[in-house]
Structures are given as C-alpha cells and as structure tokens.
C-alpha cells in the first residue's frame, strides 16, 4: 500500500476485523512513524503499530492462505459518502441532445453517518459508549448528539453545542456508573 493512513479512515485487517485510524505518531526514542488505531469490535481496544508494518504486505510464509495482499486494506467510505475516483469525462455541449423536457429530479442521497457514531451505537456497554463519546469531543455535531440522546432515551435540552455535549456526557457517566455488569 503506497498511501499513508489518515485519521478516521476505516481499514480491514486481512483476518477480517475492522479498525479506525485515530492518528499518526512518532516513537519517542527512535522517531519511527507509528499508526495509532482502534478496533471497531469487542472492547474497542487501541493499538500502535509501525507505519511500515501497517501498510506492509501480509507475510505469506506465516499466513499462506491469506486472501489479502496487504495487512490492512482501506475500506471505501462506509455510509453514503462519495468514493474518490476519476472525474467524469466532459461531454461537449454539441453532443448533448436539446430537450424541452424538465430536468430529472436530483437523486436522493443516503444520509452519511460518522464512523464514530456508528461505533457508539454498536457498543454493547455504557463503558464502551463513554470511551467512544469522549473521543468524539470537538467533532460532535448537534445531529450526532441528538441521535445519541435518542438511542439512550435521554431528553436533551436545546442550547449550545458544548453544553449539550457536557449534559449528555454526564448522563452517560451516570448510566455507566450504575450499569450492572458485575456478577453477584
């Protein structure tokens, strides 16, 4: 793979699991470029791997049956966002037939959901939800906060974005605190 991963891109590991790139970092001692990424399953663990390993090919000796050529493969945008590709070829105006008919109505686009919002909605425990929600600080929108509030059956008051975020965070903290996940 020739490209450098970008934050919030979703990659599929050759074994099938999905991961979200959080950021790129440098090793404190060696200066080696590292990819910091989070699993989008289970406990949503966070991992660090050297950039060369992340973008490298699968070890065919160790994994001879691997279907993928690379260890991680970039997934196209998950929901409703256009995929990068070649620009459509320009058609000269003389080649277009002249019509008096009305133009076709614009096709409805499927709404796009943030991958972190999807991860939040898929999280099974309030502890996982809280960790993902904390990572959303600074990029959460009013619509995202409303979606999260509805999913948790919380009545979120109108107001400033930061106030709504804090109110929702306090509710999730309270839910997490009283979540019954211990064996009795």
TrEMBL record:
Domain DUF1653 as annotated: residue spans: 10-73
InterPro entries, sorted: DUF1653-like_dom (IPR023387), DUF1653-like_dom_sf (IPR037135)
Protein name: DUF1653 domain-containing protein
Protein source organism: Candidatus Eisenbergiella merdavium
């Amino acid at each position: 793979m020739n490209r450098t991963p970008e934050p919030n891109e979703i990659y599929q590991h050759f074994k099938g699991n999905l991961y979200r790139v959080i950021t790129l970092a440098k090793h404190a001692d060696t200066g080696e470029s590292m990819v910091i990424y989070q699993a989008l399953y289970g406990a949503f663990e966070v991992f660090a791997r050297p950039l060369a390993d992340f973008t490298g090919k699968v070890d065919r000796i160790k994994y001879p049956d691997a279907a993928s050529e690379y260890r991680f493969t970039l997934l196209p945008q998950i929901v409703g966002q256009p995929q990068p590709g070649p620009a459509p070829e320009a058609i000269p105006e003389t080649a277009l037939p002249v019509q008096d008919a009305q133009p076709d109505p614009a096709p409805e686009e499927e709404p796009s959901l943030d991958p972190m919002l999807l991860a939040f909605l898929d999280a099974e425990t309030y502890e996982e939800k809280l960790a993902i929600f904390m990572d959303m600080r600074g990029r959460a929108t009013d619509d995202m906060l409303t979606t999260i509030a509805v999913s948790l059956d919380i009545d979120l008051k109108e107001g400033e974005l930061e106030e709504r975020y804090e109110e929702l965070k306090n509710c999730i903290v309270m839910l997490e605190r009283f979540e019954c996940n211990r064996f009795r």
